[in-house]
Every structure is written in structure tokens, then in C-alpha cells.
Amino acid sequence: MPFSINRVVVVGRLTRDPELRALPSGTSVCDLRIAVNSARKDAAGEWSEKPNYFDVSIFGPRAETVASYMRRGSRVGVDGRLDWREWETDEQQKRQAVSIVADTVQFLDGRDSQPDDGEGGDEDLAGVGAQEGDLAF
């Protein structure tokens, strides 16, 4: 089998509250949209930031944890893989998209830095998906 790598790591902020849903199989799925800034020099030599937006999906019990503890504006680190999909609209137009399927989600904000009413995650809760001892679930 040929060697290939499909890995992505991003750190950014949620642009909206997590959306939790269940697949017909009963598996939980949490959908996130995160903004990640990239810096570059313009023609005048000045640094400017350009936002990039990524859709992220988390599956299973991790999805429920992320939906419970994260809110719009929360800082998050995501380690996962890219997933390409294609579909056809009701008007027979082909569409395609690339998104991130998360293996690990790291919560980068503590309870005191939650952007909403402060009812965010536990300060000891760093994320979901990593190995025990990595301060993640």
C-alpha cells in the first residue's frame, strides 16, 4: 500500500456555538466552525491578518463533551484529518467541500475566560480525544 499522510492541526476560535446532533445510527456529532488567522506582509511590507474559516466535526462521546463546554469565541486546538465530500443539489448542481474530522480537541480557555456567561468548561478540562495523562479526554 502506498504511503500517504492526511493530518491537520489548527488553533483558533469558534465563530458560533457548537451544534450537536445525532446520526440515524444514534452516534452523536458536534459541528464547529473555527476561525484561524494567518499573517502575511502586504505590498507595502506591513503585516496583516487574514481569517480562514474551517468546518470541524467531532463524533461520539467527545462530541457531547465539546458541545457542553465550548461556546462562540472559545479558543480551541484541533488535531484531525481532512475529509472531502461531494454531493448534488436538488437542482442537479454538483457541490464539494473539505472539512476537518477531529481526533483531538483541546480546550484552550479556562472557566474564567469563557466569552459568554462563564458557564463554560472546568479549568482542569483541557480537551477531548488525547491519551490519558495529556490533560484531555
Your description of this structure?
It is a single chain. The chain is mainly beta. The protein contains one helix and seven strands. The protein has one helix spanning 61-69; strands at 8-14, 19-22, 28-41, 47-59, 75-88, 94-107, 127-128. It has a five-stranded mixed beta barrel with strand order 1-3-4-6-5. β2 and β3 form a beta hairpin. The radius of gyration is 17 Å and the shape is globular. The two termini are 32 Å apart.
Beta content? over 45%
Shape: globular
Task: Catalogue the unreliable spans.
Answer: 115-137
| Distance linking N and C termini | 32 Å
**Mean pLDDT figure:** 83
Q: Can you list the strand order of the major beta sheet?
A: 1-3-4-6-5
Tell me the total number of β-strands: 7
Main sheet specs: 5 strands, mixed, barrel
Structural class given helices, strands, pairing?
A: mainly beta
Order of helices and strands: EEEEHEEE
The helix tally amounts to 1
Nearest-angstrom radius of gyration? 17 Å
What is the helix content?
under 10%
Topology:
Blueprint: E1 8-14, E2 19-22, E3 28-41, E4 47-59, H1 61-69, E5 75-88, E6 94-107, E7 127-128
Parallel strand pairs: 4-6
Antiparallel strand pairs: 1-3, 1-5, 2-3, 3-4, 5-6, 6-7
